[in-house]
Amino acid sequence: MPEFVVEPDRVATGGNALGRAPDGRVVFVDGALPGERVRVEVTAGHKKRLEARTVEVLRPAAARRVAPCAAVSAGCGGCDWQHAQPDHQRELRRAVVEDCLRRLARIEHPPVVLGPELPADRYRTTVRAAVHRGRAGYRGRRSHEVVHGGSCLVAHPLVEELLVDGRFGSAEEVVLRCGARTGERLALVTPTAEGVRLPDDVLVVGADEVAAGHPAAHHEEIAGRRLRISARSFFQCRPDGAEALIELVAAALGGSVGAADEGPLLDAYGGVGLFGAVLGRDRPVIGVESSPSSSADALVNYASGAEVHRRRVEEWNPVPVAAVIADPARAGLGKRAAARLAATGAPVLALVSCDPASLARDAALLDGHGYALTSVTTVDLFAQTSHVEAVSRFERR
């Protein structure tokens, strides 16, 4: 494939640096940082853009470092920003969010600030690993190749032990989870748990058993609440990150999580009930969640008397609420869900986004329903990666 020299000037959604090829096309460069001069090899070509990988750094950025994890050197694709210092990673995340809000939501001066700084290592309490010849491994960068890299820089020690020492029989994949504050551990093995060898304290369950109704779950403690998390339920990857999100959502809602007589709190895309369980302790909560396992967990985790609607937000019938919390998947709200949330008439809405582009699209949609974006705070939930989490406040005009 052709090679050339490029000087990227910014970073794009997805983590690649962005520059111009000699022929004028935009080039997305894997492994480069803004301000560097790098030699790249083209990996894919399109009419208006190119994709490339860095083959030589001719002029490094001051924030560049050697990736500290041996798994990255072996080809693991899980941490795509380990070549940048953690402080610089934070600034890059903010830059990506600001860029998306300018380009996609047409907001000239995006109100984006950095959130609390979280530890960059040994934080991840959930790891999805491939299995090859009975050993857990990591997926290669943009490939299905399995890399046996040994230790993992970002895995919580309770999970890393299982990654390194576990034996997983004839499995194809395993999801390893732990409660960092409860010490509980769970392994969800696909397709079956036959032949798996792990320490006795680990709850081992096959995907076939869960499909047949096995009630496998572990627990985590968040902001003084003990939460049940079933094997198939989504949960944030670190308890300190979950608490950071809760604090930012509470700040975004302001006084709207106060007295119960102000009306219910809507926890849309509520998952296992993280936000409603903590912020809705003293007020009515309405949870909307489509996942069967997560909605069942929410019924356990919410305070008594909460409503849980097991359906998609787009299909939920709006009712008046005092405040809205929405934590959608990567695709964001979309037109129908944004309309349903706006129909509640809530004076304030806190949006938790895990993709800067979907945040920008949702900001434009909510603006069309009379909700103005007043603040955005980035959260370093996935340190060492280009993944961006953000909490935004929208006020009804």
In the sheet with the most strands, the strands line up as 7-23-24-22-21-18-19-20
Rounded Rg: 22 Å
Mean pLDDT: 94
The number of distinct helices, counting runs of at least 4 residues, comes to 9
State the end-to-end CA separation: 53 Å
Largest sheet: 8 strands, mixed
Low-pLDDT stretches = none
Specify the overall morphology.
globular
Amount of helix: 10-25%
- What structural class do you assign from the helix and strand content? alpha/beta
* Count of β-strands: 24
Strand content: 25-35%
Tell me what you see in this structure.
By secondary structure, the chain is of the alpha/beta class. The protein contains nine helices and 24 strands. It has helices at residues 70-73, 86-105, 157-165, 207-211, 239-253, 274-279, 292-301, 334-342, 356-368, and strands at residues 3-6, 10-11, 17-20, 26-30, 37-45, 49-59, 112-114, 126-132, 135-139, 146-147, 167-168, 173-178, 185-190, 196-197, 202-206, 217-222, 225-230, 265-268, 285-288, 307-309, 323-326, 348-353, 371-379, 389-396. It has an eight-stranded mixed beta sheet with strand order 7-23-24-22-21-18-19-20, with helices on both faces. A six-stranded mixed beta sheet has the order 1-5-6-4-3-2. Strands 10-9-8-12-13-15 form a six-stranded mixed beta sheet. A hairpin with a 2-residue loop joins strand 8 (126-132) and strand 9. Helix 2 (86-105) packs parallel to helix 9 (356-368) and helix 8 (334-342) crosses helix 9.
